[in-house]
Amino acid sequence: MKLTDNALERLRSAVDLPDLEGTRYRLLEKLGQGGMGGVYRVEDTMLSRDVAMKVVTAPDGDGDLAARLMREAKVIARLEHSGIVPVHDVGQFPDGRVYYTMKLVQGKRLDAYIPELGSIPERLRLLQKICDAVGFAHARGVLHRDLKPQNIMVGPFGEVLVMDWGLSKIVREQEARNTAVISPKGGDENEVTAHGTVLGTPGYMAPEQQSGSGTLDARADVFSLGAILRFLLAETADVSIAPRSRALRAIVDKATAQDPNMRYDSTAALSNDLSAYLDGLSVNAYPEGALAKLWRWAVRNRVWLLMVLAYLVMRTLFILWRTR
Amino acid sequence: MNKIVLGLVLGAVLGAFDGLTAWFTPEVRSQLLGIVIGSTIKGLIAGILIGYFARKVNSLPLGILFGLGVGLILAFIVAAMPNPAGKHYYFEIMLPGSIVGMIVGYATQRFGTTPYPATR
Question: Of A202, A302, B43, B109, which has the highest C-beta tally within 10 A?
Answer without folding.
Answer: B43
